[in-house]
Amino acid sequence: PPEYLRLAPLFEDEVVCLMRKSHPMAARSLTLDDYLQADHIAPTPYTVGQRGVIDLYLAKERIKRNIVAYVPYFGMIPYMLLQFDAIFSAPRSFSRHYSALLPLKVVDAPVKFPKIPYFLLWHERLHRSQEQRWFRELIISVLRNDSHVLN
Question: Which of 23, 119, 121, 148 could be stapled to 19 by a disulfide with Cβ–Cβ 3.0 to 4.6 Å?
């Protein structure tokens, strides 16, 4: 983040694959070949020409997945997965949430992606505000100490 933002680490999450329960690959463990040959939905990169963290990691490993659609909103992707046989590589907490609401399945990724770190960010001008400090400490204590939030 830019230097004028403060940050506090919150937690880390692992990357899994989310797909509809009727996806042909949902009934078995994914192999690397399955993963690379499958159709994927990915979030739209923030800037033109930039790759997301998943594709940056795959590029370092000299492998590439088959992205068939880029979507500007994370929350749209689970609903799109219901419409066709595609995979979304996503954080486990996100995937668990949507698989509890929709007929989706969470499958372990066949690639050992690095964990995704999450941070709380705030502007320097609010750093000393008592109200903001109280609110930040509340968020940090809930996300760091309450395991039910992430599980």
Answer: 23
- CA 85, 89, 94, 96 torsion-angle sign: positive
SS3 128: coil
End-to-end C-alpha distance for the chain, whole angstroms: 27
Structure tokens of 132?
């903001």
State CA 21 to chain mean position distance: 19
Q: In the predicted model, is pLDDT for residue 115 greater than 90?
A: yes
| Cα Rg, the chain, nearest whole Å | 18
* pTM attached to this predicted model: 0.84
Higher pLDDT, 95 or 145: 95
**Closest among 123, 134, 131, 110 to 38, alpha carbons compared:** 110
CA–CA gap between residue 70 and residue 84 (Å, rounded): 14
